[in-house]
Amino acid sequence: xxxxxxxxxxxxxxxxxxxxxxxxxxxxxxxxxxxxxxxxxxxxxxxxxxxxxxxxxxxxxxxxxxxxxxxxxxxxxxxxxxxxxxxxxxxxxxxxxxxxxxxxxxxxxxxxxxxxxxxxxxxxxxxxxxxxxxxxxxxxxxxxxxxxxxxxxxxxxxxxxxxxxx
Length: 166
Description:
About 5% of the residues lie in helices and about 45% in strands. The chain is built from two helices and 15 strands. The strands form two sheets. Strands 1, 2, 3, 4, 5, 6, 8, 9, 10, 11, 12 and 13 form a twelve-stranded mixed β-sheet that branches. The radius of gyration is 16 Å and the shape is globular. About 30% of the residues are buried. The model has no long low-confidence stretch (mean pLDDT about 85).
């Protein structure tokens, strides 16, 4: 018998920067991205979604790695969905909304906050895992999906790991 899975069980200490993984937060699964570790060994983690908590948008926090997670590796894919809010704009209200993805000529930036919504916001460049300034002339995406990899995304009938709907 073969049991297939999109992820692999991995120690948090073995995660690499840029790796997508799921972590239990408040009794529910959240999809996270390891950003980097500091000199003390604390991991900087971006939480891309918070299932069941509508008010809490993407945020990042620091923690000492402990235990195991389900890792999807570094080949994950974010699919930007064109909808009525997807247009080139510098409109302040939409650019400031947490959870939107802004795409300019150089970056694909997720609007994210530090410390579970109480800290200073910024744009997390998803490909590099670093915080970047975003060009005022950019495309705003309020809807997006996360896929484990290209093969997962191209499989007919596949369901994304996460689908952000505005």
